[in-house]
Amino acid sequence: MVADEAAALAHDEGKYGTVGVVALDQAGHVAAGTSTGGTTGKRWGRVGDSPIIGAGNYASDASCAVSATGTGEYFIRLTVAREICALVEHKGLSLQAAADEVIQTKLTALGGDGGVIAVAPDGQMAWSYNTSGMYRARLAAGEPLTVGIYKDEP
Ligand code: ASP
Fold first, then answer.
1. Which pLDDT tens digit goes with each residue over 120-146?
2. How many domains does the chain have?
3. Nearest-angstrom CA–CA distance, 114 and 10
4. Does ligand 1 lie within 6 Å of residue 72's CB atom?
5. Which residues of the chain have pLDDT under 70?
6. Which of 39, 43, 75, 136 should be mutated for ligand 1, with most atoms under 8 A from CB?
7. Is 131 touching ligand 1 by the criterion CB < 6 Å?
8. Predicted TM-score (pTM) above 0.85
9. Among 78, 138, 149, which Cα is nearest to 111's?
10. Residue 10 maps to a domain
């Protein structure tokens, strides 16, 4: 690969291309979806975290639903989505505290980058990311739509 091609593939903005969703229905059931093209310039045949339940995606009515974006190898190593739900289910952490524990502490310590969106059956919503930004939005009945890209936004 020549230098120009490598430069064209270098995206160091700290933002990824995965599209994720988490939802809570009226009956209290949660769901998560994650769709991705993977990482830019990825090796042929690479499988990222997005399709791996427990890594980039997880949902359980016993805890929460999580969808992740970031450098998938780290999310696989930490089983990020399941780990957040386990902290909620077994340690009794709030959803935001659990998401921050895994993203801000564990993922960051491992050298990984990315973030998650999450929702719990009781209506808690959370997001956490250790990149400069994460395209995100949230909407709940009776509440205004919240949209953000960078850290200093709501
Ligand atoms: N997590 C995805 C992957 O590693 C990349 C992304 O979030 O854009 O395949």
1. 999 999 999 999 999 999 999 999 999
2. 1
3. 16
4. yes
5. 1-16
6. 39
7. no
8. yes
9. 78
10. no
